[in-house]
Amino acid sequence: MVYKTSLWTGVLWTFLVVTARMAESQGRHSCARSDCISLQRCPQLAELLRAPTRDNIKKLQDATCFVSGQDPRVCCPPEPPKPKVSLLPRRCGEGLAGNRILGGEETPLGAYPWMAVFGYKEIGFDNIEYLCAGSVINDRYILTAAHCVEPQVLAVKRLEVIGLGDWDLKTTVDCQVTESGHRLCSPPSQNFTYEEIIVHPQYNTRTTYSDDIALIRLSRKVDLSGFWVHPVCLPPQNLNVRQVMHVPEAIVAGWGATENGTVSDRLLHVVLPVVDNQQCNTTYKGRTIAEQICIGGVAGQDSCKGDSGGPLVIRGPDGPPYLQIGIVSYGPTNCGLKSVPGVYTDISKYRDWIEENLRP
Ligand SMILES: *[C@@H]1O[C@H](CO)[C@@H](O)[C@H](O)[C@H]1NC(C)=O
Ligand SMILES: *[C@@H]1O[C@H](CO)[C@@H](O)[C@H](O)[C@H]1NC(C)=O
Ligand SMILES: *[C@@H]1O[C@H](CO)[C@@H](O)[C@H](O)[C@H]1NC(C)=O
């Protein structure tokens, strides 16, 4: 902060006269929560000299810890935190296929361009196994489940590649014949390694798979210029997801990846009903917490198509943008158990945590 010298010296004089008397009577005193530093080095307090009102002088007097010559020292309070600029994008949740949800389970190419697939290599083996998924949330970060990337898992299986914009895991250039008979192809996937993994500190401490959420910082920036790789939208903190759903259902997409590998080479999706939290808690014998939501578990609906760590999304009333409301956490190991819903991390409870942990 730069002051005009005349302003500084003029106001400083007034200030000195007032503080000198005070310092004489009280001597030096120590600061409770900060250092005793030169007023000129404390912009928050020096700012008050611009408007030397009675109130401001009083504040300065209270803050003064030592006066020597022309250099009063003050207990400089910590600077108020700057309003944080969100690193999450404004444009998000736009899938290529628009309203077109096909009858089948195979997804339209480009419908869920935030899908990330994780390829692992077991120590001592050469082949890549796709065991988890995640979602692109900006040009550097992937959101996933903590159980996919926690240190104990990565000690046994190295996270070798994070693939974005993939659809058919077996082919390099993926093609699909659209409803109108055109052959549509997407470019090869963008492959990444990671630079940092941030697992939620409370993961698995409060209940089974509690706080099952993690962030992956990729080794370089994602190219988001095309429509084949695009971030999903995240809900505001504490959004009541049920209230914004126009139908009580959500979509899970994935390759059906579990700890045993994938079910399908091509990206599948399924629409699942949201289950009452109380009912779900009863099914799981009181082990679910408010930061988890339950989906699926209704006869005829297979809840085993999503991948661990993958996103649970809802659409707006007119289609995209898509909002990610959950992360696939755990569920019935036997996919035949139709009455058992899957448990998902409720993202609306973690928006603040996510934003606090993103770096440019
Ligand atoms: C991405 O990684 C997968 C798995 O290692 C590999 O099969 C594929 O060829 C890679 N794609 C590109 C474009 O490098
Ligand atoms: C994985 O395979 C093991 C052994 O066959 C089985 O016990 C387990 O239930 C399988 N897990 C899933 C999620 O399918
Ligand atoms: C589930 O039930 C247990 C035991 O009654 C309770 O402590 C917990 O808060 C409940 N969870 C939810 C999400 O209601």
Automatic annotation (TrEMBL):
GO cellular component: extracellular region
Keyword terms of this UniProt record: Calcium, Disulfide bond, Glycoprotein, Hydrolase, Metal-binding, Protease, Secreted, Serine protease, Signal
PANTHER family: TRYPTASE-RELATED (PTHR24256)
Major location (coarse): secreted
Keyword Glycoprotein found: yes
Transmembrane annotation, as ranges: none
Record text about domains: The clip domain consists of 35-55 residues which are 'knitted' together usually by 3 conserved disulfide bonds forming a clip-like compact structure.
Pfam families listed in its UniProt record: CLIP, Trypsin
Gene that encodes it: CLIPB1
Species per Swiss-Prot/TrEMBL record: Halocaridina rubra
Signal peptide: 1-25
Family: Belongs to the peptidase S1 family. CLIP subfamily.
One BP term from GO: protein maturation
The name this protein goes by in its record: CLIP domain-containing serine protease
